[in-house]
Amino acid sequence: MDLSIGLPTSVPGVDGSTLLEFARRADRAGFAGLGVIDRLVYDNYEALVTLAAAAAVTERIRLTSTVLLASYRGSAAVLAKQLATIDRICGGRLAVGLAAGDREDDFVAAGARFSERGRRLDAVVDELRAVWAGDEVGPAPVSGGPPLLFGGHSDAAMRRAARHGTGWIAGGSSGTAYRQLVARVRRAWAAQGRSGRPRIVSLSYVSLGADASARAGEYLRRYYSYLGQKAEMAVSKVATTPDRLRAVVAEYAEAGCDELVLFPCTSDPEQVDLVAKEVLS
Predict the structure, then answer these.
(1) Which residues in the chain show pLDDT less than 70?
(2) Whose CA, among 62, 172, 225, 276, lies 20 to 30 Å from 3?
């Protein structure tokens, strides 16, 4: 299983130089990928701009949107050009995770229809591929375009992943529930007549070092405040000790995960080294 790490773009107080140092350390440490989340109505760094910045300061690591909410973005042609540009800057290291989204306020702020987000995402995917296959809107991405992963737990989301993608990506969940989700994705893949197996990716939260639990709780309760009491579920699943982190990694590997993206609950770049010491050594 590949082990990746997320950029702390939504952790309160993070500054630009810290994000870049975080990306450099992740590249040097040997993580397979660097993830970034996408939100609009929140105090976080914009996902595509952040990926472009990370591309400029890294050399090896894969760069992945985990996930990009393409349905509220206005022009698919513009999005295709932005993604192709990042892909060219990083030399073909880009992977694009996409999902319909579940926060209506993001869509309201963008002037997009929340009720049409699934249909809009399908249309965006078709147009992305059409733009990348043509020669009118350049630059062309490396190798025909970055791989597409699709997120979401609904049947429609899993059919979308099986129909259009190279795989499926999930938010953090328990090992048992995750195994059930993996089974559903693989059934959807087979139902679409796809050969081979989908690439299975997941996110999980980590917070190591001094005051790890307190930092994780403060961050996640704020980030998931719209869920009310359900935010406590996210807090309860954070790996806050080395033993728990290694156990989480083993659980996901056993459940069929191909890549686990460990998202930190603090912006301190030292977190990269603490996590790497436990899972990459």
Answers:
(1) 173-176
(2) 225
